[in-house]
Amino acid sequence: MAHNVEYKKIQEYQDVIDAMGKVYFADYSLFEPHWWFLLAATFIPWIVWWKIVDRGRLLEILLHGLLWSSIASLLDELGSTFGFWEYPKGLVPIKHTLISADIGVIPVAYMIIYQFFPNNWPFFFANLGLAFVFSFIIEPIFMHYDLLKLNIGWSHFTSLIVFSVLGLSIRWLTRLIIKKAK
Question: How far apart are CA 135 and CA 139, in angstroms?
């Protein structure tokens, strides 16, 4: 029974934090320039992707993007929950995730390299290049504009490794699913 009392206290604190987060979001994020940027970053990649996607491989490429989006969202939630990073400003008043990256920029970018680099070595280098861009160019820009804060235990180099390994792993998983489906 003691755990129920403790859980109720946690919920009460969480309710206060959620209310404060909504006020913070309304005061410092909603309709500010960075908010419009994040909104555009959520939808514009999909518009570009739709114009260039190989319609003959649409389901395969979309599967690749769905896997990326699902895994990116899960890891984003875990990483921020465990305090590796945080998002001071966002698109919606959610503390733990950067929706624009998880469902927009990241899956679309990886769908594009999946489509245009079907062979192993070219994909490997494109994946490494994209991981480098996300880790050492995009992340520092986001930090400069207070959209991302990396905490102790995480670095741009760690991001590079994670993006690189995920890129190869998700490609392998996509191909495995497609092979099993045939």
Answer: 5
Quick one: which H or E segment has residue 150? Answer: strand 149-150
Residues 68 and 131 grouped into a single domain: yes
Distance between CA atoms of residues 153 and 172, nearest Å: 28
Angle between helices 106-116 and 156-181 (to 10 degrees): 60
Identify the domain containing residue 25 by its residue range.
1-30
Q: 4 and 75, same structural domain?
A: no
Whole-angstrom distance, CA of residue 75 vs CA of residue 9:
27
The runs of H, that is alpha helices, within 87-155 are: 99, 106-116, 120-133, 139-144
Per-residue pLDDT of the chain (182 residues; tens, 9 = 90+): 677 888 888 898 888 888 888 888 889 889 999 999 999 999 999 999 999 999 999 999 999 999 999 999 999 999 999 999 999 998 988 777 899 999 999 999 999 999 999 999 999 999 999 999 999 999 999 999 999 999 999 999 999 999 999 999 999 999 999 999 98
Tokens 């489906």 correspond to 181
